[in-house]
Amino acid sequence: TEYAEFLHCKGRKFTDFDEVRQEIEVETDRITGVNKGISSIPINLRIYSPHVLSLTLIDLPGITKVPVGDQPADIEQQIRDMIMQFISRENCLILAVTPANTDLANSDALKLAKEVDPQGLRTIGVITKLDLMDEGTDAREILENKLLPLRRGYIGVVNRSQKDIDGKKDIKAALLAERKFFLSHPAYRHMADRMGTPYLQKVLNQQLTNHIRDTLPAFRSKLQSQLLSIEHEVEVYKNFRPEDPTRKTKALLQMVQQFSVDFEKRIEGSGDQVDTLELSGGAKINRIFHERFPFELVKMEFNEKELRREISYAIKNIHGIRQVLPSLFTPDMAFEAIVKKQIVKLKGPCLKSVDLVMQELINTVKKCTKKLATYPRLCEETERIVAGYIREREEKTKDQVLLLIDIQVSYINTNHEDFIGFANAQQRSSQVNKSAVGNQVIRKGWLTINNIGIMKGGSKEYWFVLTAESLSWYKDDEEKEKKYMLPLDNLKVRDVEKSFMSSKHIFGLFNTEQRNVYKDYRFLELACDSQEEVDSWKASLLRAGVYPDKSSTENDENGQADNFSMDPQLERQVETIRNLVDSYMSIINKCIRDLIPKTIMHLMINNVKEFINAELLAHLYSSEDQNTLMEESAEQAQRRDEMLRMYQALKEALAIIGDISTSTVSTPAPPPVDDSWLQQARRSPPPSPSTQRRPTLNNPPTRPLSGRGPAPAIPSPGPQSGAPPVPFRPGPLPPFPSGGEALGGPPQVPSRPTRAPPSVPR
């Protein structure tokens, strides 16, 4: 069925082409007015017909030299700009239309085409009005491309005359008349097969084919990359059978198995599909065990001032009213009281580590359930069941951790092989041995020195290197230009409150002997991008023997500790017990640091993995009806359908490209010709063109475009072109042929000499 559609009349189909003609006239007058105005806004007309090519015809006006009617003073420049806007496009074929009864050397169409297509690869010359040439003259040498040659040559056409249009001459009959003219004319009969509207259509169709074949390799590569990108996802949907009664059961088993594998990989680590953007659950738990937990233990352990005060109180309270005699002094009771109190303090860090691991397990479960998003209810239920089980195991793990602490409190084993004993306690140095040996490098990384004044350059980022003996920083990570080296002796770490103006997380270093740490700074503030980095640096400093400071919170005490008598005899007893406590607590810490991660691993992590592998499926079956559990989300169903459609469309497109490659042939571009005459030709003012109208876009619906519109205009390229001509002239427009008439050659420039010659070809 032949019909037409306008872009400005969406949804309306025109089957009567007289109405199409009328609509073009009405729309033109609506935009440009009725007094020969112009507009660069095109009228978009799409014609559906078996008799047209899949090309877009852009019908442009000829150049007006003198404005008439409502036309602006710069009408020539406006039309020129409008034409250049279209013909500058690389995928546009230019049909440079020139009447045979005018001077070709002064053709505006050819001159404009030469500007944008200097190689002549996109320009085809079209000669009209061959039947109106003076008797005894012809355009043979031009059509043979001997006189004023073009690279793609010229094609002659004979269009309907104004009388034919007024008489509603059939386009099919016009094509036959054109054919008869070329066959009967003595100057053209030898090249009749290369003249006429049907041959012009054939040439344009071949250019479309060439364009398609030229773009096929890149287009094929793009389609293949798209196909590969969705192939993995489509693989899941390929075997989707909505009518299969076992589909939901199979899907449930697959989802639970996939969840179990993902959870184990995130905890245990895996060589495939490694996340390079963030730490996985297992890696974060490892940091809790070996960085965060030891750091929390040390923070609880070293509070020297408070410990000494407690020891002195314990010694005095044990003896009560009696005088403490050096020869009768036995440190057992005071030692046990202090040690038990220190051991009980370890409950906090141990329970905190259980909480951190529990939270990390739940976060891991949430990440693993994202793959179950296809089935929202299954995702929710799986997360609820596993998170609930993790919290159950958390309670049991905490009970076991507290039991381990109570076991340590219940019996103080002073016969332990690593315990220094009373005799050695008096001789032991109070200095704490560093955990690192020699000048070993413990950590490297970027840190910002935060408390440098603005006058001295402000905060700066440096490359820091921490060893067992010093903290050095360099200009960059090449470690060539050292800025400073800070010895670790008498250094401690202190937390610094984050500024509301800064996104950085800060910690500080200071000297316990009130000395400057760096230049004239008593306190060195170091900043990181995250709290995790701060904790990691603190743990590294701890390994180097730089411990957290807690004494700063005790400056406001009421002097209790300084008021009691600390005679030399009591001082020696306090020092002895302090060394004993230090020795025993190092044994306890070593034991706790080993046992707590093992307890958490056994009672929480391994237990949760076994639960997911063995019991999760049974809990899911008992929690809810399987059909409800395995209901797809509407979004997922839509996505599946879209992915399958896309996959099928890509495969079909690649198959079509393969067919085109094998069933079509490209024609090589003609060799260059000497077209210097275009530059040398003297410009002479052509006759004034007819009334200017809006350009009309005539778009058949099928393929992407190859050739496009023109210098002054492009004739319709269809074989027996679909739409009859829509003249730009004022006055009543002749009607389109009836639906029963065959649609023929392109609309044309009116062929009477009384009309303005360089009219707008249709």
Describe it.
- The chain is α/β, with parallel strands linked by helices.
- Among the domains are: 61-220, Rossmann fold, CATH 3.40.50; 439-548, PH-domain like.
- The chain has helices at 17-32, 75-87, 108-116, 140-143, 162-166, 171-184, 197-238, 247-268, 281-301, 304-319, 332-344, 347-369, 376-410, 421-425, 531-543, 560-563, 568-614, 616-623, 626-629, 634-663, 677-680; strands spanning 3-6, 43-48, 57-59, 94-99, 123-128, 154-156, 441-449, 460-467, 470-474, 482-487, 491-495, 505-511, 523-528, 547-548, 696-698.
- Helix 3 (108-116) links the parallel strand 4 and strand 5.
- Helix 8 (247-268) runs antiparallel to helix 17 (568-614) and helix 12 (347-369) packs antiparallel against helix 13 (376-410).
- The two termini are 23 Å apart.
- The share of residues in helices is 40-55%
Helix count, per DSSP? 21
CATH class of the domain at 61-220: Alpha Beta
Low-confidence stretches: 429-437, 552-565, 682-694, 699-762
Beta-strand content bin? 5-15%
CATH superfamily of the domain at 61-220: P-loop containing nucleotide triphosphate hydrolases
Sheet of most strands = 8 strands, mixed
Q: What's the total number of strands?
A: 15
Structural class by sheet pairing and helices: alpha/beta
**How much is the radius of gyration in Å?**
46 Å
With strands numbered from the N-terminus, the spatial order across the biggest sheet is: 10-9-8-7-13-12-11-14
CATH topology of the domain at 61-220: Rossmann fold
Average pLDDT number: 78
End-to-end C-alpha gap:
23 Å
Form type: elongated
What is the CATH architecture assignment of the domain at 61-220? Answer: 3-Layer(aba) Sandwich
